Amino acid sequence: MSDIRFRVRGPGWVETVTATPDWTIQKLLDHLREKQGAEPAALKYGWPLKTIDLGDLSASIEPLGLKGEAITFVPKESAPEPAGQGALASSGPAFQPKKVEADSTVIEWPEKDGYLALRVMPDDNSCMFTAFGGVIQREDPAPSLRREVADYILAHPDKYSQVVLEMDPQRYARTLQDPDRWGGAIELSILSDIYDIEICSVDVKTQRIDRYGESKATRCLLLYSGIHYDRIAFTMELSLPVEFDEVRWDTGNDVVLTMAQRLAKQLKDQHYFTDTTDFVLKCDVPGCGWIGAGMADAGKHMKETGHSALTEMKIT
């Protein structure tokens, strides 16, 4: 009897659940009540978003096809999220991907008889690692990818010196293991070398494409929205699970880059980005009190102090 592993995301928490095919809806609710101390108003999953029928508590979860899925736990005290948003984990700093309408997250690709789609990652400060982890089809990829990048840095001291990292390499490798530490250009470049793949980061605000590992034979696409990374994938049908996504392309295929830029432009029109030049941040580490503006200030503060518990200040 094969286990069924899936994630459940609620307000401020994310849990990986390991169930068996004989679990019922009642068993799932009992598990969530025991682990999270809350009852859901609804459980939503899949793409397009579907709602699990909580009316038949004796029904088995096996026909739902939850393996590898991410389920949104909609609390009773909150209104359900708009269709198509998925759950955005809110652990760690309060940087969340902007919300967009469901039909803004895909574009039709008639020549391939399918769609280029945005796969939204949890906003748990490991979004870049999680987005890339889906390319290499690794479950819960962030911890292992963080370790691999850290080992690579220490194994290449000439390339990744204190001058390049703006931090002692040993300290950089150590702080990278912190699940609240963001990944960026350095980590993307290293992952490109480790996995021999070109990583293209498509910027929502400018539609610019930054390439890491241009000499590689295959490429993958990530979407960068200022403080967050998501994955870009091709799917034949929007109802198919993400396991069926096409996430690798030959680097001679530039059509996919054009399509990705079109998707980014569509998302920009929905303001699915954070302008990192003028937003105000504060450090939540007790006793710190630091306040700065933009990612440049944030990056400097994190490198100087190792603090990563930063949140955006709402200015009215």
TrEMBL record:
Its main location: cytoplasm. Its EC number is 3.4.19.12. One of its GO terms (biological process) is ERAD pathway. It catalyses: Thiol-dependent hydrolysis of ester, thioester, amide, peptide and isopeptide bonds formed by the C-terminal Gly of ubiquitin (a 76-residue protein attached to proteins as an intracellular targeting signal). The keyword Ribosomal protein does not apply. One of its GO terms (molecular function) is zinc ion binding. Keywords: Cytoplasm, Hydrolase, Metal-binding, Protease, Thiol protease, Ubl conjugation pathway, Zinc, Zinc-finger. The keyword Cytoplasm applies. Pfam families: OTU, OTU1_UBXL. It is found in: Cytoplasm. Residues 116-235 form the OTU domain. Transmembrane segments: none annotated. InterPro entries: OTU1_Ubl (IPR048857), OTU_dom (IPR003323), Papain-like_cys_pep_sf (IPR038765). One of its GO terms (cellular component) is nucleus. Hydrolase that can remove conjugated ubiquitin from proteins and may therefore play an important regulatory role at the level of protein turnover by preventing degradation. This is Ubiquitin thioesterase OTU. It comes from Coniella lustricola.
